[in-house]
Amino acid sequence: MQPKDLLSLSEQFGSPLYVYDAQKIESQYTRLTSAFSKVNSLRINYAVKALSNISILRLFKNIGAGLDTVSIQEVQLGLHAGFEAEKIIYTPNGVSFEEIEEAAQLGVQINIDNLSVLEHFGTKHPKVPVCIRINPHVMAGGNSNISVGHIDSKFGISIHQMPHILRIVENTGMHINGIHMHTGSDILDIEVFLYAAEILFDAAKNFRELDFLDFGSGFKVPYKKGDIQTDIEELGKKLSKRFNAFEKEYGRALTLAFEPGKFLVSEAGFFLAKVNVVKQTTSTVFAGIDSGFNHLIRPMLYGSQHHIENISNLKGKERFYTVVGYICETDTFANNRRIHEINEGDILCFHNAGAYCFSMSSNYNSRFKPAEVLWYKGKGILIRERETLEDLLKNQVAIDIE
Prior knowledge:
single chain; TIM Barrel; 2 domains; 9-stranded mixed β-sheet; 8-stranded parallel beta barrel
């Protein structure tokens, strides 16, 4: 997308505004499938938690993806979007047993990461195929909050507990049809990922009727010019070769599965906000926008960086600004950042806003959630209306106070 297109959309739909480029989503999907084109059977399950708008899900269905879900609500959204149940994998953590049973009744692939839940489910539903999420105890991820494969993680069943898993499977007679791992987000070192993959291959040897091996995701995307990213092509070359060799050794056709979220939608997303005030203090120039961490919490939550561009003044002189929001507490998007000169009324564009931005938004300070627009075939299409006061009041119950 061009800055002039984004500026036009901000004028058409107002601000703040989330915009998603369908062509970029499709190209990222194609890049991933091309990297693993030498694998006989590949399944890409889009991680719904990254961006769950129903139109985005339908876009993924159209290009051939499955879905990775972590809640019964995401399962229901996937089914509502038209996905077949067998194209959806459900990987919860810490949910009620009743929710897992509900997902199983809907016919989706169940993925279990807890020994007690595995035993309970296997005892009650031994004929329902189950995938097991292994914790390989391999640290990967750009931040402790998004690294989930280490030894202290709440996710997965420890690889060291394999004897317990096998005892449960034998005692219940349950059918294990998949093995899964996820080490964390923002993977930089391919060799670390391949090392974890070897642990998954070793675990898979314990089960003779597997249909797939799920390697999770966590591929890093660039957040600024010159930033490092996961070399998908190199990973595809190395892991495909190893997977094909293991498949022959295993003696049964297997599907290689991934569950990317950020990799597919992050770079496709843009967040547009208008500058309300430019405030000079004794040491800082603040650019205050008509949004806050209620709409883009990632910088405040775990220090993520989003490139910020003044699309209203692309040829202006660069100055240093601290970009802040209107939330009534510390609410900083960027400190002392070089941005083309900002004036009140300018539109700032936050890049890499496709993943975990709208999906983590809130109504803090009783602010409305923004609209969402899909840039599809050269046209902006509204895929979520901006909230109104009616939306804030919809589920509230006013009682008489005397």
